[in-house]
Structures are given as C-alpha cells and as structure tokens.
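Researcher: Structure prediction, please.
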Amino acid sequence: MTTNFFQEKSVQAIDVNSDEFQAELEKTWKFVDKVNKQFGFVQNPDQEINEGVAMGLARNKLIYGKRYCPCFMVIGETPEERKSADNRICPCKPALEKEIPEQGYCHCGIFCTPEYADRHAKEEAIEEAVHLHSRGLTREEAQILVEKSQLDGDELEALLEARDLGMVDFELIDVREPMEFQMGHIKGTDALWPTSQFYDWFEKIQNKKEERMILYCHTGSRSYQVQHVLQAQGFRQIGNLTYGIIAFNGEIER
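Model: Predicted structure follows.
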C-alpha cells in the first residue's frame, strides 16, 4: 500500500484554545517581531492575513518542531525526510532573496516592506472610496489607481471624475468597432481604435509609448488582448477595463 505524496499519514488535531497552543502562538508573535526588526520588515496591513499565518506557524512548530511555512505542504514523515525535502522554514530563503525584494511581500504575506505596506493600506482606502462611493479620490489616490493594470467599472468612473477635476491625466480608448461606438460609448472617451483596424492605427501611435491610456471594449476581452500586444511593443502605461462597458455604471453617450 502506497502513501499519497501530498498527504500526511497522521494529522495531529490542534486545539487552538489550549494553553499549549496559545503559549506557542505568543512565542510565534515574538518571533515575527524579531524577524521584522532584523530585516526592517513590517506586518501586512491586513490583520487577518497576519493572524492566519501566525496560527499556521504555531501549529507547524507544535507538530514538527519547526516553523514551516503554512502556505506550503510539509513534505516528509521524519525530520530527516523533511530536511531533505527542502521545506520552507520561516523566514524562508525564497522570501528573503526574491519575493520580498521584488514584490514587497513574502508568499504568505505576513512580512512586507514598509513601502509595500503603506501602498497596500492606501489601496484599501481607495477600494472603500470607489466601491462604497463614500467620497471622492484624493490626488495621491487617483495617481495610485490610474497605475493599475486592470480596472473595474467603479474604479474607471472614479478616475474619470478625478480627471475632470485635474487630479490625473490619461486617455480613454474604445477598441470596439464604429457601429458599437455609435450605439453607446463611455462619456469621456478620447478616441476610437477599432481592434479590426489595429495595424492601421498602431503605426500612428508610436509617439504615445510613455503616455497613460485605459482601453475598453464590450466585455473586456478585446481590450485585454490589445493591452498585452501594446505592452509587448513597449507601451508602458496601458490599463484595461476588465469587464468592459457592460460592467460600467457611469454615464454612457449614444
């Protein structure tokens, strides 16, 4: 009888309310603080992420005797097998050498650079503002939002309002066909670049490679394809309305 490679033969049940677990969890938080101070990291602004990861680390410490990364399966039934399997032990080498330097946070998300944490917190505030319509964007928030690669309808609506107020600058481009454009287009659209005529207009926009543009179509499919073609050709600031005009609740001109 063979054992499934991705299953532990015996899984220990951990009572998170037990004194043993709570004591280990307290040690884990001290460990997290120590890592942050050692490497200059901060915790994720999303406390739910931190709590989930910390509990996973504490669980693995009780079961295996080491704080194996809780976001990956622990391979090996004996300490020797687990060591030879090169399981991630927090703070893991991939996080320190690649993930955090390149993206600002580790795979699990508990360790972040101060810059990433600050930006993430601002993005959370933007999400609340644009989706709950609780307030307009600040100039800084508009600048952060316009840099997103994929935008939803509420986000584009907020950006169009911010553009009208002079907070941010971009061109809104419809990549559908002329007949579709005439039937209805987003108010504030700056140009129509039909996907079927891509090679006709592509040569004419070579001077726009550094300009900020947001593309849209009917459902987001054509504009997504055009976005990636333009990015591959050196256009650096191309956004896309993810679900297209059908998911846009702002003003439509016909």
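Model: The beta strands are 42-43, 111-112, 150-151, 171-174, 185-186, 191-192, 213-216, 238-241, 252-253.
Researcher: Thanks, that helps.
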